[in-house]
User: Fold PTS IIA-like nitrogen regulatory protein PtsN from Shewanella surugensis.
Amino acid sequence: MELSSILKPECTTCATPGSKKKVLELISDIAAAQYPELSGQDIFESLLAREKMGSTGIGNGIAIPHGRLKSITQPIAVLIKCEVPIAFDAIDKQPVDILFALLVPAEQCEHHLPTLSLMAEKLNDKAILKQLRKTQDDTELYKVITQ
Assistant:
């Protein structure tokens, strides 16, 4: 799967959200702005429900928050690079600065596992991660993740 098929340039941003709650709200706002048929509140609640099951912070400064939505038919992704790392309850107890969020159709939740796996593999590539952390703007961030 090409990442560009689920990640729009407008859903890729460098930001300073400040907290786990704020970054989940930011993900929700970005997705809702690009997909007007979606409710930012529904997105936020979906992401929050998954986080309550256990943190999606996978370590090394990376988190892959994800949620299920009844109102979509195709996966939607949001990529955020935090200018200042935030506490995210990651498995290694380290703050997070790279977040790849994935929203999937509720009835197709098993289908997103390969996408999550691909993204985790990509973000665990030290060269890609280093490039992501060096990016200075949204366009550059999008180019690095989709190359």
In short: The helical segments are 20-34, 40-53, 113-123, 126-134, 138-146. The radius of gyration is 14 Å.
